[in-house]
Design brief:
single chain, Immunoglobulin-like, 5-stranded mixed beta sheet, globular, disordered N terminus
């Protein structure tokens, strides 16, 4: 009887529900109007601040999708994971930082199952290094209908 009970408990832990995707942007947030005016673009010149590189997804993909960004620091500085801020650029902007925080590492963001409604989403990621220098990336996620 005890072995059966332990087996049922183990099976329950293994099959405790379907793995759920993490909701990155809700339907309501997706319906917000686009930002007014110009969106800040890439800075020029010699900068020593950290770099944010958008790795994936590539072109238009279905949701849930793999959201991957790579962070790179310079001059011996380290990326401060607590400084990472992720914004969905809308009117008003939507702060996605708390939804992404569990997937933030010193070398980037690796979110395997980001759930978004179909559409185009302009995002901004801000980071700082251990010397306080900022880095920013703006990119667009294109989510195809299912």
């Amino acid at each position: 009887m005890r072995k059966i009970l332990l087996g049922l408990v183990a099976a329950g832990l293994l099959f405790s529900g379907v793995s759920r995707a993490t909701q990155l942007i809700t339907e309501e947030e997706a319906k917000l109007p686009p930002p007014k005016g110009a969106v800040a673009a890439d800075r020029r010149g010699i900068l020593r601040g950290p770099k944010v590189e958008f790795v994936s997804p590539g072109e238009s993909v279905a949701s849930p999708l793999k959201l991957q960004l790579k962070f790179e620091s310079f001059g011996g500085a380290k990326i401060d994971p607590e400084s990472v801020k992720v914004m969905f650029l809308r009117t008003p902007n939507v702060d996605l930082t708390s939804r992404v925080k569990p997937f933030v590492q010193a070398d980037g963001i690796n979110m395997q199952d980001a759930e978004l409604p179909p559409g185009d989403y302009t995002m901004r990621v801000d980071i700082k290094d251990s010397d306080g220098r900022p880095g920013t990336a703006i990119f667009t996620l294109k989510v195809a209908p299912k």
